[in-house]
Amino acid sequence: MKLTQRVKRILANYESDNPGTKANLARILMHGKLGGSGKLLILPVDQGFEHGPARSFAANPDAYDPHYHFQLAVDAGLNAFASPLGMIEAGADSFAGAIPTILKVNSSNSHATTKDQAITGSVNDALRLGCSAIGFTIYPGSDEAFEMMEEIREMAEEAKSVGLAVVIWSYPRGGKLSKEGETGIDVTAYAAHMAALLGAHIIKVKPPTEHIEQDDARKVYEKQKIDISNLSARISHVMQSSFNNRRIVVFSGGGAKSTEDVLNEIRALRDGGANGSIIGRNTFQRPRKEALEMLDTIIKIYQNKA
To answer: Are 79 and 42 in contact (CB under 8 A)?
Structure first.
């Protein structure tokens, strides 16, 4: 695996990390059709935990099978596959070495009444299964946010010590945040910055809207004339908030959208300087052929070919 200059520049931003962690980051950055470009396209399948099996997979019954997702990620030429413990275990041998994997080590479910997640995997699990990274969700704004931050600080220290990379899903919710505020530009940029401060190598946030949640933030956005007029401008601001583009930031695909809406959003992400996308339901809930075609187009968009 010969690293491209682009990937070498990205790795240079992680100044404290050991060779093992940088090697695992490099594996993710160099894998698949976007390998070497500095762009990422990742398949996350944690929705069964979050929403339940029928809500997640009934639209495409083949997706009840964990092997379906591994194979989809491999055949599409993606950079990595992310999922909780049981699903990674279910395909770990059959797909060993086929694609870098990210073990999601905490999860919630749709029955929960608190804005929190349970620890459902460990660093040792990730090592045993040959994963390149652990993934962890925090909920900035929730009453449990500080505990979640303490949990990932401890797990990130352990992961980095044994050469694993750390991915943080930073999803504001709970507390005094309004529903609209969860994806507001000030809140999303703040969430990305928190994940960077917590030591994430890869940060996952949602594409931000033009809404500004905090009055104190609004004053600054207006005074400094920060451009948030379109999605590309907002993405650029989130990247700036992530240590001025020194951290890898990927954006979620969100709820079900038409193919045209997905592709238009991807173009805006690309134009704003995003490192890539992490798209679940908008791929595996489609028929396999349609999903592969859409993923191929997304890859071409990030390659500036579409």
So the answer is: yes
